[in-house]
Amino acid sequence: MNAYLIAGIVLILFLLILLFLLKKRFISSGRGNHLEKAAKNGRATEKQDTLLRSYFRGLSYILSNETDRALVEFIKVAQMSSDTSEIYLALGQLFRNTGEVDRAIRIHRNLLLRSSLPDDITLQTMFEIGLDYKKAGLIERAGRTFEELHEKFPTYVDALQELGGIYEMCREWDKAIKIQKKLAELSDNSDSDNILAHLTTEMAKEAEQAGKTSKAMTLYRQAISINKNCMDAWLHLGDLQLKKGKEQEAVNSWTKAFEINPDLAKLVVGRFSQLSPEKGKKRKDDFFQSCLDTYADNIHFIFCYINFLLDVNRTDEAADWIKRVMFTNPDAAEIFPVVARLVKSTESCKQYQPFLQEFFTIYKPPLKPYQCRQCGYQLDEVVWKCPKCAHWDTIGPR
């Protein structure tokens, strides 16, 4: 749906509510001089009609994409009535959402300069200015705005969430963690520990990159103590343990990560390549044999196993597993690459010809291999926080 149409519908709904409130305000409910009441009501009705005509003209200009003329009409409304803060907020949002961020900032700043602005409107206006700066790519200004908003309104959750997001963008993990802890105190968010664990893991990664391995090890374990199901922390803990020569501990950590989310088996299996070729092959074989009975129905684990079988030239076993997948999950995104590997690794494909013919009959090219379970956003690789909806741990194979 066109953005202007959406904005117009929203403003029309707001207008209808305003109309109802204005009518209610001008209805006389007490006793007194009927003539005086009638005169007052007449003047009020005339003012109300003028006000509504300006509103409708403004809406018409918005729907016609004539935002300059719409602004003129809304300024007229502002001159006739003091109760126009919401319309300025809505108009600023419209400008921001359509890319005219400078206008949005100007409108919201002018609104903030009004005297006797109610606290709730001041709060909302400052919040909108922060969003304007963020939309314009002025991240530092946005951060300062949300920080100021937090100082004035310490319990405003929306501002805290935006401020935390900016700290994450700037990789200021310690500040992001403090904000998340405040959010946990103010709101009943069941995902709070998970977010804290991820932020702590990111801090650990930076410490490791800076050569502070002891600090990194402590932070990875701290993240796990916050949320024992933080797969990212277990994976990187295993990586660091391997760097320190603790091979079995590393394998144990990776295995724990796999058990948390078997759908992401590829992230675990790929780590065995950090071992020497012979050790890696043996460790992989042990890993698959220990997990095969439990996870034989997990298609993503099975694809990892098929690739391993092809790596070690156990072609017939790989072909048997591919046949099983064909009958149970013919639309699986990873089926084509393993079939291609099977063909390349086989000197003669005659023995597989019937099933290959069937495969290419039912095969449908896949979309991107990973997808957010929360919003459906598709990606080429695993990330821990969805770029679209900003939820953690919602990315998985399609």
Question: Can you put this structure into words, describing what you see?
Answer:
With 398 residues, the chain is an all-alpha fold. Among the domains are: 170 residues, Alpha Horseshoe (Serine Threonine Protein Phosphatase 5, Tetratricopeptide repeat), CATH 1.25.40; 75 residues, Serine Threonine Protein Phosphatase 5, Tetratricopeptide repeat (Alpha Horseshoe), CATH 1.25.40; 32 residues. The protein contains 19 helices and 3 strands. Helix 10 runs antiparallel to helix 11. The relative contact order is 0.04.
Helix proportion of residues, in percent? over 70%
Average pLDDT taken over every residue: 81
Biggest sheet features: 3 strands, antiparallel
| CATH third-level topology of the domain at 3-25 and 40-186 | Serine Threonine Protein Phosphatase 5, Tetratricopeptide repeat
Q: In CATH terms, what is the architecture of the domain at 3-25 and 40-186?
A: Alpha Horseshoe
* Estimated structural class: mainly alpha
Strands of the widest sheet, in order across it, are 2-1-3
Order of helices and strands: HHHHHHHHHHHHHHHHHHHEEE
CATH H-level superfamily of the domain at 3-25 and 40-186:
Tetratricopeptide repeat domain
Rg, Cα atoms, Å: 30 Å
Percentage beta strand? under 5%
Helices, by number, come to 19
General form:
elongated
Number of strands: 3
In the CATH hierarchy, what is the class of the domain at 3-25 and 40-186? Mainly Alpha
Q: What is the rounded distance between the termini?
A: 27 Å
List its traits:
single chain, 398 residues, mainly alpha, Serine Threonine Protein Phosphatase 5, Tetratricopeptide repeat, three-stranded antiparallel beta sheet, 2% strand, elongated
